[in-house]
Amino acid sequence: xxxxxxxxxxxxxxxxxxxxxxxxxxxxxxxxxxxxxxxxxxxxxxxxxxxxxxxxxxxxxxxxxxxxxxxxxxxxxxxx
Length: 80
Description:
- This protein is α+β, with helices and mostly antiparallel strands.
- The chain is built from 2 helices and 3 strands, in the order H-E-E-E-H.
- The chain has one domain (about 15-80).
């Protein structure tokens, strides 16, 4: 019997470094109690109630979709 070994193919991370910096900035400007660094951001998603969830290495934060979109736009505007 011949066995084949293969190395798992790494998946592409959908969040860029810039995305993580923006998300961490929003978390730190909110009333979330932890100091969020860009490397703490694991993933982000929007549920059916238009709530944006941010999963971090030390917990979760949630925001209303429209407020989160405004915060992203403001941060991008300041950095351009």
